[in-house]
Design brief:
about 190 residues; alpha+beta; 2 domains; 3-stranded antiparallel β-sheet; 6 strands; about 20% strand; binds zinc ion
């Protein structure tokens, strides 16, 4: 018996390094205008494109959109960085210029600016840490807990590499949970 679904062209298209496109959750898709380009409009800032390319739209959300929520910014930052990491081309420079330009381009509110900048920084740090950790084969997880001045129970989880680099994996406030070994085991998973 042959599995015809496995061989369908749609499934093949999504195979390989790139995950299926989810850009259309954040961008309104208009008419197709040939070779992977679409009329499009941003769901957050009402920016429009007559011939939008997916990669350009992703860049808009990661770097240029003044109104995108923090989680959206981080999602597309990660995407754009992964792509740049693969191609390792002059795109990298283009991106940092774009980021600088963006700061003066619109006049976002202080709150949006702080949120978005933090998300961008966080996405970059996460990406670096993940690529460092992917290279390592023998990681140690160390954790420690203490009670803060406000009686919160704070725990930190640190990943150690064989070359003694330490990465803070997570800082958790576990006040609502009892300090049982059982709980820690669940949290670590
Ligand atoms: Zn936008």
């Amino acid at each position: 018996m042959t599995d015809h679904i496995e061989d369908s062209p749609i499934k093949k298209k999504n195979r390989g390094s790139r995950p299926p496109n989810s850009i259309w959750k954040d961008i309104n898709k208009g008419e197709a205008v040939g070779s992977g380009k679409f009329a499009a409009s941003c769901k957050y800032c009402k920016n429009t494109w007559s011939r939008g390319e997916v990669s350009k739209l992703e860049e808009h959300l990661s770097n240029y959109c003044p109104d995108a929520p923090a989680a959206v910014v981080r999602k597309y930052m990660t995407k754009v960085m992964e792509r740049q990491d693969k191609s390792k081309s002059s795109k990298k420079r283009k991106y940092s210029e774009g980021q600088k330009l963006n700061v003066g381009y619109n006049t976002p509110t202080r709150e949006v600016l702080v949120n978005q900048l933090l998300e961008r920084e966080l996405a970059q740090v996460n990406f670096k840490v993940n690529s460092e950790l992917e290279k390592e084969t023998n990681l140690t997880l160390v954790f420690d807990g203490w009670t803060s001045g406000t009686h919160r129970s704070i725990w930190n989880f640190i990943v150690m590499t064989p070359s003694h680099k330490e990465y803070l994996y997570q800082l958790s406030d576990l006040s609502e949970n009892s300090h049982t070994a059982e709980y820690l085991v669940t949290d670590l998973q």
